[in-house]
Amino acid sequence: MFGLKGKSFLTLHDFSSEQINYLLTLAGELKNKKRMGIKGDLLTGKNVALIFEKPSTRTRCAFTVACVDEGAHPEYLGKNDIQLGHKESVADTARVLGRLFDAIEFRGFSQEVVTDLAKYSGVPVYNGLTDLYHPTQILADLLTMKEHLGELKGKKFVFIGDGRNNMGNSLLIGCTKMGVDITIIAPKSLWPEENHVKVCEGYAKLSGSKVEITESVEAVKGADVIYTDVWCSMGEEDKAKERIALLKPYQVNEALIAKVENPNMIFMHCLPAVKGYEVTEEVFESSYSVVFDEAENRMHTIKAVMVATLS
């Protein structure tokens, strides 16, 4: 359906708005089926390799449960379990795994690795997170927004914090492709790369949305979504002290929420959260926080990706 059979899921750059919308619709249907206790068989007989260079809670659990729910077998491969990129090249590992598995998930550092896995394996490859992109998270975010806001097109989405990380990059793509106005609020040194912004502005022109990159926290006014992420991504722990100093004015707290002036807004976070830094306990635990709906939706949207590309 929509040209998704056999397709890898490496970045949302590779997907049209129609394909993304189809995945969101399918995720909603699969979520309803699970809520009704209906056991699925759409992935029966499939074997999925789960490669993890980086630790994970939501991504690992979401892929595992999604596989089992629809009859597939997930095989976890930690960084010490295989020779990927060490004693064996990525290309050779990909060609071996492609003969043994029906699909491969990769969560690690390099986008080049997940791209090469897709290039050489001959099976669908899913990006569970790299330093550049986190596309499965964005699908969960979009589904959560649809559930709470009713629609996507024309909504105002504000990401505040480290704007040049994998979440900032991926949210720019997802929002602009789906007609969501996106504002990234960050100190200028942490703005997304100019070339990436220009590409996403092109998507925005097609969908009728807008892109704003600013240092001003006043830009939260009228937001339908306030979104933040950790100030130090995995592998950047040595920069924690300077990041905290730089990003302290961008903390999501009750004073910032008051500037939004939208009683129907929601707060989102991809988790894990470092409460007291990028977000306060009060906001995280508030009635408008939907972070655990968002976390659950990782599984439903990942299941949709696998069903659409494998069944």
TrEMBL record:
<dbReference type="InterPro" id="IPR006132">
    <property type="entry name" value="Asp/Orn_carbamoyltranf_P-bd"/>
</dbReference>
<feature type="domain" description="Aspartate/ornithine carbamoyltransferase carbamoyl-P binding">
    <location>
        <begin position="7"/>
        <end position="147"/>
    </location>
</feature>
<dbReference type="GO" id="GO:0042450">
    <property type="term" value="P:L-arginine biosynthetic process via ornithine"/>
</dbReference>
<dbReference type="InterPro" id="IPR036901">
    <property type="entry name" value="Asp/Orn_carbamoylTrfase_sf"/>
</dbReference>
<dbReference type="InterPro" id="IPR024904">
    <property type="entry name" value="OTCase_ArgI"/>
</dbReference>
<feature type="binding site">
    <location>
        <position position="83"/>
    </location>
    <ligand>
        <name>carbamoyl phosphate</name>
    </ligand>
</feature>
<feature type="domain" description="Aspartate/ornithine carbamoyltransferase Asp/Orn-binding">
    <location>
        <begin position="153"/>
        <end position="308"/>
    </location>
</feature>
<dbReference type="InterPro" id="IPR006131">
    <property type="entry name" value="Asp_carbamoyltransf_Asp/Orn-bd"/>
</dbReference>
<feature type="binding site">
    <location>
        <position position="107"/>
    </location>
    <ligand>
        <name>carbamoyl phosphate</name>
    </ligand>
</feature>
<comment type="function">
    <text>Reversibly catalyzes the transfer of the carbamoyl group from carbamoyl phosphate (CP) to the N(epsilon) atom of ornithine (ORN) to produce L-citrulline.</text>
</comment>
<feature type="binding site">
    <location>
        <begin position="56"/>
        <end position="59"/>
    </location>
    <ligand>
        <name>carbamoyl phosphate</name>
    </ligand>
</feature>
<feature type="binding site">
    <location>
        <position position="298"/>
    </location>
    <ligand>
        <name>carbamoyl phosphate</name>
    </ligand>
</feature>
<dbReference type="Pfam" id="PF02729">
    <property type="entry name" value="OTCace_N"/>
</dbReference>
<dbReference type="GO" id="GO:0004585">
    <property type="term" value="F:ornithine carbamoyltransferase activity"/>
</dbReference>
<keyword id="KW-0963">Cytoplasm</keyword>
<dbReference type="InterPro" id="IPR002292">
    <property type="entry name" value="Orn/put_carbamltrans"/>
</dbReference>
<dbReference type="GO" id="GO:0019240">
    <property type="term" value="P:citrulline biosynthetic process"/>
</dbReference>
<feature type="binding site">
    <location>
        <position position="166"/>
    </location>
    <ligand>
        <name>L-ornithine</name>
    </ligand>
</feature>
<dbReference type="GO" id="GO:0016597">
    <property type="term" value="F:amino acid binding"/>
</dbReference>
<feature type="binding site">
    <location>
        <begin position="134"/>
        <end position="137"/>
    </location>
    <ligand>
        <name>carbamoyl phosphate</name>
    </ligand>
</feature>
<dbReference type="InterPro" id="IPR006130">
    <property type="entry name" value="Asp/Orn_carbamoylTrfase"/>
</dbReference>
<dbReference type="GO" id="GO:0005737">
    <property type="term" value="C:cytoplasm"/>
</dbReference>
<protein>
    <recommendedName>
        <fullName>Ornithine carbamoyltransferase</fullName>
        <ecNumber>2.1.3.3</ecNumber>
    </recommendedName>
</protein>
<feature type="binding site">
    <location>
        <begin position="270"/>
        <end position="271"/>
    </location>
    <ligand>
        <name>carbamoyl phosphate</name>
    </ligand>
</feature>
<feature type="binding site">
    <location>
        <position position="229"/>
    </location>
    <ligand>
        <name>L-ornithine</name>
    </ligand>
</feature>
<feature type="binding site">
    <location>
        <begin position="233"/>
        <end position="234"/>
    </location>
    <ligand>
        <name>L-ornithine</name>
    </ligand>
</feature>
<dbReference type="Pfam" id="PF00185">
    <property type="entry name" value="OTCace"/>
</dbReference>
<comment type="similarity">
    <text>Belongs to the aspartate/ornithine carbamoyltransferase superfamily. OTCase family.</text>
</comment>
<keyword id="KW-0808">Transferase</keyword>
